[in-house]
Amino acid sequence: MSNRRNWLKQIGLGAIGLSITPFETFANPLAENHISQNLDNSPILLRSNENPYGPSPLARAAMQKSINSSNRYGWNLSDELIALIATKNNVSNSNILLGAGSTEILDLVLQYTALQKGNFILAETTFNYWTFPSEKLGLKKITVPLTADKKHDLTAMLKAIDSDTKMIYICNPNNPTGTICDYEALVSFVKEASKNAIVFIDEAYLDFTKEKSLSSLAIENKNLIITKTFSKMYGLAGARVGYAVAAASTIEELSALKSSPNLSVTVVSTNAAIASLNDTKFIEQVKAANEEVKKYTVEQLSKLNLTCIPSHSNFIYFSLDNYKKDFFKQLENHNIQGTKIYEENGKWTRITIGTMKEMQRFIEAIK
Ligand SMILES: Cc1ncc(COP(=O)(O)O)c(C=O)c1O
Fold first, then answer.
1. Ligand 1 center from residue 271 Cα (angstroms)
2. Residue 99: which of 217, 254, 219 has the closest Cα?
3. Whose CA is nearest to atom 2 of ligand 1?
4. What is the percent of the chain with per-residue pLDDT over 70, rounded to a whole number?
5. Tens-place pLDDT, residues 247-270
6. Spatial distance between the Cα atoms of 143 and 80, rounded to a whole number of angstroms
7. Could you tell me the domains of the chain?
8. Dihedral pair phi/psi, residue 195, rounded to 5°
9. Rounded CA gap, 213 and 304, in Å?
């Protein structure tokens, strides 16, 4: 049996329904989080697309070790992380800007866009919390519906651009629908749309796919900004580490809006991110687990006659149109946190893919 299968078996994925014994918890430190969660009866968190297995063992060790150096500013350490991120993305250090989570980058790009006023375009439905301050910043928001299969409608988005458009946001894969743009179509879109406006691509979930990042295109295109995060695949949501990849001149302009660029990530979190980048084994395990649990969950939802959109991420978008009970009451009764209805038409909701055990409990809860 391969290592991967051994590991899947250990955490209860090899055979569905196999429960995890306390021994296996010790044998596999990655299982610690969700085991203790199930034992102490705390809620099952399927709301925010967090990684249920992480931080990685190397990140945990690095964080503990670095507590003692938290009396010092992390200038050199940020440089070390920036260099590692640049290598991973095949760009130069001058193409990277760190943020306390990618939320800091999203906020910054919104502020940067607002310097010119005008409008910005995004899909309806997509990740949009970061756009809440847009009106206060003097920006008009234009939304473009997704296609029937819940993908970004790149043609319609291109058509929506007018002389006042300053930025277009594409979340790829898209949250909450889990759909992904065709790479070539996205490259053509960027080429056209970036002639007069910033194209802002959010790759928070791209690590879960085999798709290529657009980061290398950003080096030469000052109107293309990519944002990425350590919150999802790397399991560091609470540590707050994200970054932008852009042309050096664009990074300079974004940095000029900050008094201390790259200093908002703590020494402990920077060390966690550095260690995570080196823990390729953990990443492979998380990816494999996510795929297995996704497959199980989609199969079960389909058995309940609930339509799912094929997911390229660590969450599933599905329709409650055929669901007869009160879905959110069922979750509440079983101490499970889900999200909301994103689209009334079709009653579309999203569920984060937790561990196998958590998803088994989720399925039992809604049966
Ligand atoms: C698409 C997308 N972008 C960005 C974020 C922000 O993540 P963070 O600030 O933790 O990097 C999220 C969080 O859920 C997200 O779903």
1. 20
2. 254
3. 204
4. 89
5. 999 999 999 999 999 999 999 999
6. 39
7. 3-54+280-366 (3.90.1150.10), 60-278 (3.40.640.10)
8. -60, -40
9. 35
